[in-house]
Amino acid sequence: MAEYIGRFAPSPSGRLHFGSLVAALGSYAVAKHKNGKILLRIEDLDFFRCKKEYTSIILKELDEFGFVFDGEPYIQSEHTDVYYRVAKKLVEEDKAFYCNCTRSHLKTGVCHCREKGLKENAQDNLALRFIIPSTHQNSFEDEIYGVISSPVTVDALTLIRRDKVISYNLACVVDDIHQGVTQVVRGSDLIDITTTQMCLYNALDTECISYLHLPLAMADETYKLSKQNRSPAVLDQGPPSQMLIKALAFLNQDISGLNPQMTPKVILNKALDNFEIQKIPVGKKVIEA
Ligand SMILES: [Zn+2]
């Protein structure tokens, strides 16, 4: 059997919050449990939201939790040429097109840019959009959820925005392919985009990989924890050992032999010994303060 390769891929738009810790711990534990590798990728392509200083802070915080990733962190902003190359190749293959519609036009109007056959021009701020093929899957198999039905609802997917920001979907798929990732473990907020991302795998002539979606940490019934809605930094809520135990409990793991006086490394090692993937719950979970 091929070697398991997983990854944790935070965006440096703020410090780690509890939801990021759950994703880090979940992807880390699943990879270790499967005797695989776990890579760290910094998804910092949105230069409006991501800041360099947060990259160093996130690396330091992950270290405080005792995580040891395989290899050097992969910093997406250092590889932008790769994403542009892939996007242009998709245009050459007639799988993507240049578009000069504004975002507000795309929300309400119809885009006719594909028929216009716009060419890239240094003067124009053109977006580059991927054509969702007419034949595509509307469901996928998740290791925790089983078969998830999630119909693709768009006919095109932005790969590069007019402001030149490379989209999350393009970079994530290109990197997962390039880094040989065999399973994506991530939060359930990304379930809906999965079948759309699978269209990109097909367009890039690559077999789709396997998925495992973790429960979503919610501040209450409606709000997921995220940097955008200013969720508190997890290390402001308690010391690393205590927060690790809390994250393990969130993933429904046995924490009976653990206590906050242990170092994060000891907690992590003990947790990995006893980690049970089948116990990971589905759906959303409100975290208690
Ligand atoms: Zn358009």
Automatic annotation (TrEMBL):
<comment type="similarity">
    <text>Belongs to the class-I aminoacyl-tRNA synthetase family.</text>
</comment>
<keyword id="KW-0479">Metal-binding</keyword>
<protein>
    <submittedName>
        <fullName>Glutamyl-Q tRNA(Asp) synthetase</fullName>
    </submittedName>
</protein>
<keyword id="KW-0067">ATP-binding</keyword>
<dbReference type="GO" id="GO:0005829">
    <property type="term" value="C:cytosol"/>
</dbReference>
<dbReference type="InterPro" id="IPR049940">
    <property type="entry name" value="GluQ/Sye"/>
</dbReference>
<keyword id="KW-0862">Zinc</keyword>
<keyword id="KW-0648">Protein biosynthesis</keyword>
<keyword id="KW-0547">Nucleotide-binding</keyword>
<keyword id="KW-0030">Aminoacyl-tRNA synthetase</keyword>
<dbReference type="GO" id="GO:0006424">
    <property type="term" value="P:glutamyl-tRNA aminoacylation"/>
</dbReference>
<dbReference type="InterPro" id="IPR000924">
    <property type="entry name" value="Glu/Gln-tRNA-synth"/>
</dbReference>
<dbReference type="InterPro" id="IPR014729">
    <property type="entry name" value="Rossmann-like_a/b/a_fold"/>
</dbReference>
<feature type="domain" description="Glutamyl/glutaminyl-tRNA synthetase class Ib catalytic">
    <location>
        <begin position="7"/>
        <end position="256"/>
    </location>
</feature>
<keyword id="KW-0436">Ligase</keyword>
<dbReference type="GO" id="GO:0004818">
    <property type="term" value="F:glutamate-tRNA ligase activity"/>
</dbReference>
<dbReference type="Pfam" id="PF00749">
    <property type="entry name" value="tRNA-synt_1c"/>
</dbReference>
<dbReference type="GO" id="GO:0005524">
    <property type="term" value="F:ATP binding"/>
</dbReference>
<dbReference type="InterPro" id="IPR020058">
    <property type="entry name" value="Glu/Gln-tRNA-synth_Ib_cat-dom"/>
</dbReference>
